[in-house]
Amino acid sequence: MEKTILIIKNEFNLFLEILFPSKCVGCNIHGQILCKNCINNLRQAERPTESEIFAVYDYRDPIIKKAIWKLKYYHSSQLGQKLGELLYEAFIEDITEIKMFTKGSPIYVIPVPISHDRKKNRGYNQAEIIARSFVRGCTATYSRGWTAYVAVQPLLLKTNIIYKNKNTIPQARLTNRNRRLQNIKNAFSIKNKEQIKDKIIIVIDDVTTTGGTINEIIKLLKKSGAKKVIGFAVAH
User: Fold this and answer.
1) Model confidence over 120-135: pLDDT tens digits?
2) 29, 72, 74, 88: least surrounded by Cβ within 10 Å?
């Protein structure tokens, strides 16, 4: 059923693309949702993050900010897919190093969940769109045989382990670091604990600011038996 829905969505997106060709979110050039020239000029993340959290781009970059905004509030799934590809490409060497700890097991990829009410109202979770593309990037690379760069084990998307147990104030509305951390405290719960015992896990989000959201999930996964957990975000 889920596969059928995905096929229908992909065909619908293709139909929309024919009617309304993509324009680059940065320069409005037709035919690309984010062109190579704009990508090459994106500001790289330089501000420090938490020790186990890594980001690719600086959220203050106007193109990145616009791209994430359109993904989050206008369901631009193409942008989410592109950001997932860029996230994978940025950390491809890190993934290769991480796989040395897996002992033959897949690396789990967990998108930061949103609350049930928010997902119902919005219709999707932007972090999950990014994470799905991130995982597909590994599968595509592996299938082409780029063994010098890709982990032997595929990445596996897991959306049935971490869930948000309450509605919280959107982190973007809070400017105080302590309020952000308190806002997200104990906001996540875990199920299917047996699946993560001794696993290597990557947590995916669109933006990390204080690192509180990803860090809360990392602590929860470690407490529940995960062997190693790190966080990847598109922007910081």
Assistant:
1) 888 899 999 999 999 9
2) 74
